[in-house]
Amino acid sequence: MAETLDKRRTSEHARDLGIYDEDGFVDADFLDRLRSLVKAEKAAALIEMVEPLHESELGDILETLDAEPRQNLVRLLGNSFDYAALTEVDEAIRLAIVEAMPNQQIAEALGELDSDDAVYILEDIEEEDRKEILAALPFKERIRLRRSLEYPEESAGRRMQTEYISVPPYWSVGQTIDYMREDEDLPTSFAQIFVVDPTLKLIGAVELDRILRAKRPEKIEDIMHDTRHAIPAEMDQEEAAQIIEQYDLLSAAVVDADERLVGVLTIDDVIDIVQAEAEEDIKRLGGVGDEEISDTVMTAVRSRFTWLLVNLATAILASMVIGLYDATIQQMVALAVLMPIVASMGGNAGTQTMTVAVRALASRDIDLRNAGRIIRRESLIGLLNGVLFALIIGIVAALWFQSLGIGGVIAAAMVINMLAAALAGILIPLVLDNLGADPALASGTFVTTVTDVVGFFAFLGLAGWWFGLG
Amino acid sequence: MAETLDKRRTSEHARDLGIYDEDGFVDADFLDRLRSLVKAEKAAALIEMVEPLHESELGDILETLDAEPRQNLVRLLGNSFDYAALTEVDEAIRLAIVEAMPNQQIAEALGELDSDDAVYILEDIEEEDRKEILAALPFKERIRLRRSLEYPEESAGRRMQTEYISVPPYWSVGQTIDYMREDEDLPTSFAQIFVVDPTLKLIGAVELDRILRAKRPEKIEDIMHDTRHAIPAEMDQEEAAQIIEQYDLLSAAVVDADERLVGVLTIDDVIDIVQAEAEEDIKRLGGVGDEEISDTVMTAVRSRFTWLLVNLATAILASMVIGLYDATIQQMVALAVLMPIVASMGGNAGTQTMTVAVRALASRDIDLRNAGRIIRRESLIGLLNGVLFALIIGIVAALWFQSLGIGGVIAAAMVINMLAAALAGILIPLVLDNLGADPALASGTFVTTVTDVVGFFAFLGLAGWWFGLG
């Protein structure tokens, strides 16, 4: 992604306000001005500076500031603070800001937000505070938010917006348009309206452009279409996002267990979900779980420790393989010098195959049924690259240690380990996925364990046998 | 991503058609029926089976079939084949299908697609065929597609849709609605209309819900808003996606160098771009470049070879460090047994830091200016985990080889290498990014080179000095 980031966020709006520099970072001058206003406690000037900003821009500023000026900025902005910006920052920062506020103030702020943003902020707040905040909300909003919060974490019900427009099927287009003109309690923007029966059961939807193109006397039921992609509120947000994405929908109705309309999931939420899930995959492949850059040092140490501990266990296992051949190594130290090459090449080749496999699994391009084809493919790639690198390292090692035998042994070990890497790289993610585990989370360790163990075994074992050592 | 994939694609529509099994894969029975119809050349039955499918569902089927039945299916479907499905499959499959078709047929097919889909298919076709196809298109479409193709690859101009609605600012809401009711040449669906002056320069936009809520006599110029986020056609698609994403837009106007409206970029394209860019990052971090699962074995071998060759060079470098201490190892073989542990732990810790750094760079959370804070953070994490693992491995090694000296040496080497890993993990991506290189592509090799070299140096060097060997 990074290659093009240099020219990021150069939209006219942002350029006019001078928030971002040409590299897409929050502009240094802008920040300096902001910081000195905060220091001088000039609330009015700050409000004037921050008011025209989009919530995402204010979010970027909050993430860039240190904790102290950040809290002071929020305090000085007071009622002018755009609470929607809280949905644009890391969890740790969001919590720090919210915890410094009296619950009464949070309740007032939430009342002004869309319900999905309000839920997003509420769900991280501790049980007790949450109850107090909900109690301080007007009845209608309290009911809405409470219902959303009752759905499981990361479900469509948590991410949906409860503001939507629904009309009965027998209304005319004219009636519907008049209703939209007059009702003040409408969502801030919307792309379709829903059609429900008297029990609120969802029976259809109409896109706005379809309404605009219809004549006023036409009946809604004649221009509506079935909502074939209605999303159960209990559905995982990722699945819901995949449906909206697959069928290129602008929004989708969310329904409860009785197929009653309870909310709407919009495509901009889908983008956030897609981003978050891709981020999760990358972090899991890199062994850092759900860590965020704003987490405290102790949180980061703890989350990384587990992964490193697993790696230590597998590294010790690989060492024990070497330990089996200590007599062999003592008689030929060249083996100790060369052995990490075989293991390292296997590890990299295995990671390549694993990356392809994890991605193919995520997009449902492979499964156990068509695994035969993909296993043959990866084995062939492993074999071919194995032979190529066997030739290269064989020649290099033979020249380096002036021994054809060493060149032959490392070449043979290389072919074996590259094949093992291909098989481990494809089979381990497949099996993990089939067991219901996340292949992105665990495959890496297992794959490199295999390539280390096979690499050391093959190289040291072959050498011991060939040279009659040990 | 994978943990929840099990329940994927269970939308009512797909369930009714029976295309997907409960794991979200193309259903085996469905495929079997399809394959036997293809084999029996029953075109009519096939058309009946495939016609109700969404383009993305047909795309999934094309990706699941082997080359021969796939080509036969497309041939048997004839004019009933939904060409939009071509935008849903891997490049290799798309090219195979298109190359088997006469250019005249492709031209007819493209005429029925939205312009962005047509460009997507055209841009991969070879120059000569492309010219012939364009020549066979009606004048208006030829001009449109040619203009899109003149913009750079992966630019907003390539991804935009050239079907949009634009009206002059002095029109009334009523006039605009009547125009939309009568004009047949409209985009299939749209969320906003654009306002242009007589020279086609963009001056504003109005969302459909705003039009619906306005009274018929109101003037468009009174309800339109500035298009503060208009996107230059030359802009990279990723930047454009980031603007649409940051400001939660449903679509954005694309303008040429003279600020004339030339197209519209819609949010469903943005999702595809976000997906593609995340996929690219994951693959680059895994060392498989732009490889797709449908690439041929030779393409995959070639693309992976380069990365493995770089890794071989760095592995040899690490071996040369070991080579410096061959006499030390000969006197104490335990060192050869233990040395991969230090290197491996450093490699993993470095990868963790690097993953956090690459993600933070991609989302502009860090840069060289605030690097101090992040470098201190990562060093502290590295130091703390270094001390923890030094204790663990120190005790394990001391017990294993019955030597306090060995335990002390490996513990000290572990602290040093974990610190080096933290510094390499943060500094290498920062420097690469600052040089304009993609940190996702190259950081991995450099980081593990540092941790291998420092790991072997620290451990073998300390051991040689402590035990007076070498």
From TrEMBL, chains A, B:
<dbReference type="InterPro" id="IPR038076">
    <property type="entry name" value="MgtE_N_sf"/>
</dbReference>
<keyword id="KW-0129">CBS domain</keyword>
<feature type="transmembrane region" description="Helical">
    <location>
        <begin position="331"/>
        <end position="358"/>
    </location>
</feature>
<dbReference type="InterPro" id="IPR006669">
    <property type="entry name" value="MgtE_transporter"/>
</dbReference>
<feature type="domain" description="CBS">
    <location>
        <begin position="224"/>
        <end position="280"/>
    </location>
</feature>
<dbReference type="InterPro" id="IPR000644">
    <property type="entry name" value="CBS_dom"/>
</dbReference>
<comment type="similarity">
    <text>Belongs to the SLC41A transporter family.</text>
</comment>
<comment type="subunit">
    <text>Homodimer.</text>
</comment>
<dbReference type="Pfam" id="PF01769">
    <property type="entry name" value="MgtE"/>
</dbReference>
<keyword id="KW-1133">Transmembrane helix</keyword>
<keyword id="KW-0479">Metal-binding</keyword>
<dbReference type="InterPro" id="IPR036739">
    <property type="entry name" value="SLC41_membr_dom_sf"/>
</dbReference>
<dbReference type="Pfam" id="PF00571">
    <property type="entry name" value="CBS"/>
</dbReference>
<keyword id="KW-0460">Magnesium</keyword>
<dbReference type="Pfam" id="PF03448">
    <property type="entry name" value="MgtE_N"/>
</dbReference>
<protein>
    <recommendedName>
        <fullName>Magnesium transporter MgtE</fullName>
    </recommendedName>
</protein>
<keyword id="KW-0813">Transport</keyword>
<dbReference type="InterPro" id="IPR006667">
    <property type="entry name" value="SLC41_membr_dom"/>
</dbReference>
<feature type="transmembrane region" description="Helical">
    <location>
        <begin position="406"/>
        <end position="432"/>
    </location>
</feature>
<keyword id="KW-0812">Transmembrane</keyword>
<feature type="transmembrane region" description="Helical">
    <location>
        <begin position="444"/>
        <end position="467"/>
    </location>
</feature>
<dbReference type="InterPro" id="IPR046342">
    <property type="entry name" value="CBS_dom_sf"/>
</dbReference>
<keyword id="KW-1003">Cell membrane</keyword>
<feature type="transmembrane region" description="Helical">
    <location>
        <begin position="305"/>
        <end position="325"/>
    </location>
</feature>
<feature type="transmembrane region" description="Helical">
    <location>
        <begin position="379"/>
        <end position="400"/>
    </location>
</feature>
<keyword id="KW-0472">Membrane</keyword>
<comment type="function">
    <text>Acts as a magnesium transporter.</text>
</comment>
<dbReference type="InterPro" id="IPR006668">
    <property type="entry name" value="Mg_transptr_MgtE_intracell_dom"/>
</dbReference>
<feature type="domain" description="CBS">
    <location>
        <begin position="160"/>
        <end position="223"/>
    </location>
</feature>
